[in-house]
Specification:
By secondary structure, the chain is α/β, with parallel strands linked by helices. It is about 40% helix and about 15% strand. It folds into two domains: about 130 residues, Aspartate Aminotransferase, domain 1 (Alpha-Beta Complex), CATH 3.90.1150.10; about 260 residues, 3-Layer(aba) Sandwich (Aspartate Aminotransferase, domain 2). A hairpin with a 2-residue loop joins strand 1 and strand 2. It binds 4'-deoxy-4'-aminopyridoxal-5'-phosphate. Keywords: Aminotransferase, Pyridoxal phosphate, Transferase.
Length: about 400
């Protein structure tokens, strides 16, 4: 921890100086979106003041600069996740877009009537609904890996579900509601033993853990820029070349073509085949700045710091009598969900907000998971690299206060 200078990290995020209702902001809603460092904010201004232009189209100076900057981001992202090739990194609008792209393009090509898709009981709606839509369209079946009361995947049940009808496994790396860290390497190995590709929803992992798509051997990996200190409106779909090559394009339009004739269109090569139309150029370039920022701090340092903070927060909150944790897996990352027994999560959230503390309350886009636990929702505190023990202490005393007011 010696190199982790929390004061200078916090100073890089101007919004953290905000006061809410006269209290210093304690931002613990990082699972929803993270705050942005000044370098990312500056990158937006720099883009519009220096190189604003459309990419991949013009021969003129500004267009070259914008194209180079945009493609540098792809390079940085590719290196960040250790993709074998830069063209395996498709720039999308975010995780939701990335998963829908695979459901649509892979699904159209490979999923037929009677086939099966496996997801888990802890998936975000964006890793449920696209597969439901696909299954409905193709006459396929959605199968759901159950979880235990701690919020861990039932790996025995998963293993038993794998058979020749299964055409894809799509599972989250870290649960946005429970914080459970799933054994992706094992999940992938088991699926591959049956020749089944695996998509990993990395929305809650990419900012907390070192992701190496080749070491994990995943076939697809999806994540969002805005959850990793970058801007909204940009994200990534990593896909192995062998799958991307066999998939038809997602949308038709400019950039995704090599040649258009009324009789026939020849599609562009990877990654452009999946990137129709003008992309979110400034967001793409700024995501490169976010990757630079994370690398300056160091993901292993961030992971160490956040793990310690998560332990500290779990212990401190567990000392409140009325607390009930939802999600007590052995392997967890960055998220604590809880209920203050008898109180509605929304009411707790409102009191915390009055005290300057930003948490999320509700079902967190995981309604089937809430049903599994028989609850309407949770209070969720999700941490990021800039949170502190002092902020956790403020959270704990605010939860105590909420408990005394509501119970
Ligand atoms: N999956 C998980 C696990 C998430 O936490 C989220 C965002 N809450 C998403 C998918 C969807 O991400 P986005 O809204 O950025 O597309």
């Amino acid at each position: 921890m010696t190199h982790y200078d929390i004061h200078s990290i916090r100073a890089d995020f101007p919004i953290l100086k905000t006061k809410v209702n006269g209290y210093p902001l304690v931002y613990l809603d990082n699972g929803a979106t993270t705050q942005k460092p000044q370098s990312v904010i500056n990158a937006i201004t720099d883009y519009y003041t220096q190189i604003n232009s459309n990419v991949h189209r013009g021969v003129h100076h500004l267009s070259q600069l914008a194209t180079d900057a945009y493609e540098v981001t792809r390079r940085k992202l590719s290196e960040f996740i250790n993709a074998a090739q830069d063209y395996e990194v498709i720039l999308t609008n975010g995780t939701t877009h990335s998963i829908n792209l695979v459901a649509h393009c892979y699904g159209k090509q490979f999923v037929k009537e009677g086939d099966e898709i496996i997801i888990s009981a802890m998936e975000h709606h964006s890793n449920i609904v696209p597969w439901q839509m696909l299954c409905e369209e193709q006459g396929a079946k959605l199968r759901v890996v159950p979880i235990n009361d701690e919020g861990e995947l039932d790996m025995g049940a998963y293993h038993a579900m794998l058979n020749e009808r299964v055409k894809l496994v799509s599972i989250t790396y870290v649960s946005n509601t429970l914080g459970t860290l799933n054994p992706i390497k094992e999940i992938t190995k088991l699926a591959h033993d049956h020749g089944i590709p695996v998509l990993v929803d990395g929305a809650q992992a990419i900012q907390h853990l070192h992701v190496d798509v080749q070491a994990l051997d995943v076939d697809f990996f999806a994540f969002s820029g805005h959850k990793m200190y970058g801007p909204t409106g940009v994200g990534v779909l990593y896909g192995k070349e062998k799958w991307l090559d066999q998939m038809p394009p997602y949308q038709g339009g400019g950039d995704m073509i090599k040649e258009v004739r009324f009789e026939k269109t020849i599609y562009n090569e990877l990654p452009f085949k999946f990137e129709a139309g003008t992309p979110n150029i400034e967001a793409g370039i700024c995501l490169g700045a976010a990757v630079d920022y994370i690398k300056t701090i160091g993901l292993s340092q961030i992971a160490l710091y956040e793990t310690e903070l998560l332990k500290y927060a779990t212990k401190a909150l567990s000392e409140i009598d009325q607390i009930r944790f939802i999600g007590t897996a052995k392997e967890k990352s960055s998220v604590i969900s809880f209920l203050v027994n008898g109180a509605h999560p929304y009411d707790v959230g409102v009191i915390l907000d009055k005290l300057g503390i930003a948490v999320r309350t509700g079902h967190h886009c995981t309604q089937p998971l809430m049903e599994r636990f028989g609850i309407p929702g949770t209070v969720r505190a999700s941490i990021a690299m800039y949170n502190t023990k002092e902020e956790i202490d403020l959270l704990v005393s605010a939860v105590k206060r909420a408990a005394s007011m509501l119970l």
